[in-house]
Amino acid sequence: xxxxxxxxxxxxxWNAFVKASxxxxxxxxxRYMDYHQERFNDHSLMFYDDQQLLAVMPAHVDxxxxxxxxxxxxxxxVMSEQCTAKTVCEIFEALNDDLWQTGVKRVVxxxxxxxxxxxxxxxxxxxxxxxxxxxxxxxxxxxxxxxxDAAKWHRDRRYAANKSHTxxxxxxxxxxxxxxWPILTDNLRRxxxxxxxxxxxxxxxxxxxxxxxxxxxxxxxxxxxxVAGTVLYVTPQVAHAQYISATPEGKRLHAVDALYDRxxxxxxxDWPYIDFGKSSEEEGRVLNESLIWQKEGFGxxxxxxxxxxxxx
Length: 312
Hints:
Layout: E1 2-5, H1 11-20, H2 30-33, E2 45-49, E3 52-57, E4 60-62, E5 65-68, E6 78-79, H3 85-101, E7 106-110, H4 123-130, E8 135-146, H5 155-166, E9 170-174, H6 177-192, H7 200-209, E10 214-220, E11 226-234, E12 238-246, H8 248-252, H9 255-267, E13 273-278, E14 280-281, E15 286-287, H10 289-296, E16 301-311
Parallel strand pairs: 5-7, 12-13
Antiparallel strand pairs: 1-2, 2-3, 3-6, 4-5, 7-16, 8-13, 8-16, 9-10, 10-11, 11-12, 14-15
Helix pairs in contact: 3-4, 5-9
């Protein structure tokens, strides 16, 4: 097993591998990852066996800890179809030896949730148990619809969606993120005293690189005034709500319900999963009950985003 530290000249090889992998997504494409590369000391790794690339792992180092990867929602081992349980155990044995020699003493590992897998890909979970003796340190709960057999909408959500149409709310796909970003920023500031993870300039850059994968849905009043929106990250398996926000008037008019009435019942009705994102804080120890109640009202149920840790 040969481990190679990622360098920019390997970007095309990395990206082609992720695209063909059994559990990767565009978030692990270097054109996405590297938009904020100045914030992290990149230590991404590529794993070869007899010159054949078997796996990659987006990662960075901070002090004596390797993270996989704090700048991403998920970022564990991305594997080829050739990766078996035995192979992945060998990869983690080689990884631990390599990290020890470079002075790393601790690893924090983000698992890629199973809903993103195009084929079963939990060999890394087995290796974390068998090879690394890792312990679970964080478990965020996301709300996900499996469209093939989704739970029924709560009557409050059905009423709100119907009411939004009565209120004249119209939904369309929009490429102008500058229309939505003030709504998002104001809502996050008022509700959570926070800002979006991405600046307007960053999301515009990423959308220009991934126009099919990053989509903005906007809800407007009948006079054209925008009152709500959602940014979807679309992968072959999952339509993930990266951001959802409405103005106070948009909330009163049930504009978010109009958005997801179209997304769930029409545009992504045949997508395997629709992910509303996480509703927990502080490594999963605090549950935002009102937020998750709204998501569950659309028929969503729990999928966990896990983080593990082990010492070298």
